[in-house]
Design brief:
Radius of gyration: 17 Å
Number of helices: 4
Strand content: under 5%
Structural class: mainly alpha
Order of helices and strands: HHHH
Amino acid sequence: MSARFDRLERFVIGALAYLAVSGVWVYGVLDTGVLDGREALGWSAIAVVAMAHVAFGFAIREWAALLLPIAVVFLAIPAGYPESDFEPPPIWMWQTFLVVIQVPLIAAGLGLRALTDGRRRARVRSS
């Protein structure tokens, strides 16, 4: 198999995994209001989500991965409003604000991968 096919296959599998995990996040956590009023659990979830974005960028290795958070905005449109005691904005609007944070986190994972791949290549050349 060619390297190009391997890259495409890795991207498609990574993108589908990202969208599946994001769907669980949007419809299983945000839409149901699981984190509403639970501050400690909310901060833990934010840390896990941030690390997951870096990990996805590291694993996918393609700059097209930066477009995935935008796809999640469209994935969240049918979710409507989260269940809450106050009147929150729709979930897709929250996701739109989060794109500004998620894209740099994925870029950090991509950069980390490029850095580690570069070091690995340099180590192989020097051996």
